[in-house]
Write a structure and sequence with these properties.
Belongs to the major facilitator superfamily. Among the domains are: about 55-280, MFS general substrate transporter like domains (Growth Hormone, Chain: A), CATH 1.20.1250.20; about 385-630 and about 665-670, MFS general substrate transporter like domains (Growth Hormone, Chain: A, Up-down Bundle). The protein contains 31 helices and two strands. A two-stranded antiparallel sheet has the order 1-2. By secondary structure, the chain is mostly helical.
């Protein structure tokens, strides 16, 4: 009877399924595999006809087994706490380094290149996130975390010793790579260890630190700047962050060692070994030679040959399974297009120079190359078509771009705007842009508990979009107007707007991340999560590019124009543009030169905030296209098929359904009825 439940797999996904099954060699595993397929298929049978079943990778099964070692609440609580303290120091470091970057570019007399540094960091992060997610599925979360930590340390050391903006940018590449890897791996860890119902509460651990950091980072950075240089302030974290992450690494090692002693781990290892030998003619031959040779030298020679084959396969996996070329092409496309936009302006326009035109041409030429590679050449595209074609996935990716694009438009250059344009102290200028994170940290656990009761996501996301409309409207008024006198009035308005942004971000970005994870299984959870975060970073890069382009193209001319209006010597415009922090040290608040720069900052900021306000409209359209799966008490919807009484765990199951598209979307159905479209009826309500 069980066999009759297995639905036919659609032809359009046959090739992909064969790749998956070939890679893990699940067809050659133990006899319980047929039962696992039936268990998994029983869920698929209730879905759409196009749903399919694929083999689970050995890495995912190991990860499930490692998380299963946390058998009581205190172990899971301690695991979450180690991530919390690691994230606490990591975000304090991020905020401090971002501030020190402003002083670094100021010391290079290239302060306007702040956005360029931000673009480099975002582009590197966007390209590296799928890399970390896919490799962690194959080689382990802990191993990739160590790699990310090493790159982070190298980047900090290079940045701290950089003598020009080019060397600083090189350090930013390493730092952005490691920083993105550590954060996404922590988010994946929290998702691995939590059910969909409580997912928002779990990933809220990543935001709790903002409740403390919002009020402490400004004090830390201002104290460091008073006593030390920006160079020391950056180098300090190369030692501090790894030390604070030590409890997390030690506890994760404990879980791995505990999992290694289980029979399930030994069985998975045996299946993996058998798959390796059966999947390679060379490995099979060397293994036979090793078994037939009883001498020590012969066995050593056989082990060496097998190691060589394994090394080649590992390198092959790194190249193809993570789509290394695809990640590289994506980084090059965004880098070549976005970075020149922020470099072309300034005191003298550089649009006609080859240094601006050539990168732009290369970037646009690489776009079709990237498309051809992903569609025709690569064995493992960054986003498998069967996953990407679901509206719950691609709509979430679009929201990832717009959510940071519109908020980033208002947040970019926040520190100099407050410090220079609104006469804020260094502490206030540091603290105010982080108020959104504080509100996010306070709101997220509360919303997480509410979401665990409601178990639906779409209504919350729509509400968040409306809150973002209000926030952007406040920014247009308070950041887009300034008289050069009422500094506190405008600072308070900006602070209120930042609080609304933080409130909206919880309902949009955080809840959407739960929504997109509910659309797929554990096998693709890390990849989908990483790609969603990648689009989030792409949105950040786009916002930095647009705001940087507006700033570099308009700021110098606007400052000069305002100085002419106030009868100020226009030769001061060069100093005000290149080294604003030195400029405000010479001219006190309320003087005409200082008023000129405040008015100019407001003029340019108004343009940025209006763009951000307009972008809320297309984001609402994508929100309406999201799926509204019911959040269950399982890690993913596919695990709902597990019958605990049969003694089958998630790690034991070798098959899994890919997409869950049979949700009951009350909001979209209501909108369809309004325009006369009959909603489709889901076979089983999710």
């Amino acid at each position: 009877m069980a066999d009759s439940k297995v639905p036919p797999v659609s032809n359009e996904t046959d090739d992909f399924d064969k790749v998956q099954i070939s890679d893990s060699n699940e067809m050659k595993t133990q006899s319980h595999g047929s039962k696992e397929l039936n268990d998994s298929s029983s869920v698929a049978s209730s879905g759409t006809d196009t749903s399919s079943i694929v083999a689970k990778s050995f890495g995912i099964r190991k990860s499930e087994l490692i998380m299963a070692q946390m058998t009581n609440w205190w172990m899971k609580g301690f695991f979450f706490f180690t991530i919390f303290i690691g994230m606490y120091i990591m975000m304090m470091e991020n905020d401090a380094v971002r501030t020190f970057s402003s002083y670094a570019t100021n010391s290079y007399k290239q302060h306007s290149l702040m956005s360029t540094i931000g673009i480099i960091r975002s582009v590197v992060a966007a390209a590296s996130l799928p890399f970390f997610a896919r490799l962690s599925d194959n080689f382990g979360r802990f191993e990739l975390f160590i790699v990310a930590l090493i790159f982070r340390i190298i980047g900090l050391l290079i940045q701290s010793q950089a003598s020009d903006v080019q060397k600083y940018a090189a350090g930013t590449v390493f730092y952005g790579f490691g920083n993105a890897g550590m954060r996404i791996l922590w988010q994946i860890n929290l998702s691995d260890a939590s059910s969909l119902r409580w997912r928002l509460v779990a990933i809220g651990v990543l935001s709790l630190q903002t409740i403390i950091n919002t009020w402490s980072v400004g004090e830390v950075t201002s104290t460091l700047l008073e006593r030390h240089s920006w160079s020391f302030g950056i180098a300090l974290w190369a030692f501090t962050t790894p030390l604070v992450c030590l409890p997390y690494m030690l506890f994760f090692l404990f879980l791995i060692m505990k999992a290694r002693r289980t029979d399930s781990w030994k069985q998975i290892r045996q299946e993996e070994r058998d798959s390796f030998i059966e999947g390679s003619a060379s490995a099979k031959r060397y293994h036979s030679e090793m078994l037939s040779d009883t001498t020590f030298a012969g066995k050593l020679k056989g082990h060496t040959k097998l190691f060589g084959v394994r090394l080649v396969q590992t390198l092959h996996a790194v190249f193809w399974k993570v789509d290394f070329i695809g990640c590289l092409l994506a980084a090059l496309v965004f880098g070549f297009i976005l970075v020149p936009l922020t470099l072309a302006g300034g005191i003298n326009s550089k649009w006609s120079r080859a240094s601006t035109i050539v990168p732009l041409v290369i970037g646009f030429v690489l776009i079709p190359v990237f498309i051809v590679w992903e569609a025709k050449i690569t064995k493992r595209p960054m986003v498998p078509f069967k996953v990407m074609k679901d509206r719950g996935i691609w709509a979430a990716f679009a929201i990832g771009i717009f959510s940071t694009l519109n908020t980033g438009m208002a947040n970019d250059y926040a520190y100099p705007v407050l410090l220079v344009g609104m006469n804020a102290s260094k502490v206030v200028a540091q603290r105010t842009p982080t108020l959104n994170y504080f509100v996010e940290g306070v709101t997220m656990p509360i919303l997480g508990f509410v979401l665990s009761k409601v178990r639906r996501t779409k209504a919350f996301i729509i509400f968040g979009n409306f809150m973002l409309f209000i926030a952007m409207g406040l920014f247009v008024h308070f950041r887009g107007t300034n008289d050069g006198y009422r500094a506190k009035y405008y600072r308070d308005g900006v602070a209120i707007g930042m609080c609304f942004v933080g409130f909206a971000q919880v309902f949009i970005f955080r809840v959407v991340s739960v929504s997109v994870q509910s659309c797929t299984n554990h096998e693709y959870m890390a990849t989908v999560t990483a790609l969603f975060a990648s689009f989030y970073q792409i949105g950040s890069a786009l916002s930095s590019s647009i705001s940087g382009a507006i700033w570099t193209q308009d700021m110098y001319g606007t400052i000069r124009g305002r100085m002419e209006e106030l009868n100020v010597d226009t030769s001061l415009a060069t100093l005000a543009y290149q080294k604003p922090y030195d400029f405000i040290a010479k001219y006190a608040w309320g003087t005409d030169p200082r008023r000129a720069i405040s008015l100019a900052y407001a003029d340019v900021q108004k343009k940025m905030c209006i763009v951000g306000l307009c972008l809320c409209v297309p984001m609402l359209c994508f929100i309406l296209l999201l799926r509204d799966n019911k959040l269950t008490d399982d890690q993913n919807l596919d695990d709902a098929a597990i019958d605990p009484e049969m003694g089958v765990t998630a790690a034991d199951r070798g098959k899994s359904r890919v997409i869950f598209d049979n949700d009951k979307d009350y909001i979209l159905d209501f909108l369809k009825r309004l325009v006369g479209i009959k909603p489709k009826t889901a076979s089983v309500e999710n």
